[in-house]
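#structure-requests
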Amino acid sequence: MNLKTSFSHKSKEPQSGFLYVVGTPIGNLEDLSSRALNILKNVSLIACEDTRQTKKIMKRFEFSNNLVSFNKHNSFNKIPRIINELNAGKSLALVSDAGMPSICDPGEDLIVEAKSRGIEIICIPGPCAAITALVASGFPSSKFTFEGFLPKKKGEREKILLEISKNEKTSILFESPHRLKQLLFELKKTFGGEREIKISRELTKKFEEHIGNNIQDVIQHFEGKEVKGEITVVIKGINNKKKKSELNKFELKKELTDLINAGMSLSQASKYLAKKYNLAKSVIYSLY
């Protein structure tokens, strides 16, 4: 079994039978690299999340190529066709609407399948909203976690938010503009209003903004306003004992609520948690 892939960048690109995963601009088309442009111009086929978005790049840089739609709605049916094209010796570029393919899109499935078939995969790096927002936030960036879009189911969301609330590393989320306010109130409920966050909006575009000092400030900023544009949320991790003690209050409150929802009375649940965590019963009562 071959565990090593060798590729010489001195070879003329694109090469036959290669899948090129190409990073494209997240807003400003001038961010497209010359190498990415060369690949998009010269591959046999471009698989794109939305052909309309890719056509904007083609129009701006004055070239044409063969496009095939490849998105979450049709990826199951399109992957076999794309694999067949690669096996036939064609070169292919995979692009998303913006940024790096496979980050929160079905490009990941195509890459996994191509890898399993022994197809050579080359990544042409480009802009990434998560990294751009992280660097612009000013929060610690050497270690971080990326959660993408949170699940819509309440229980799953609460579980992930609770995990993030305990994380000492910076966390990055994507959110749609029409759900941002809901997310902010969920963050306040789980983290408290003082947790430091930054909301990056319309990155690299004309109306780029970086909003916020903490959750409460951001809630006030958007109060009465319609949220527009692409949103990236950066949350600073816990970095001192004070924040860890605040976190315990939110964890404890959730556990208390879960016990009551499961059928315990407030008195029974408070007595149980007071004994479990060696706290006064009145402390537990005050949370409810």
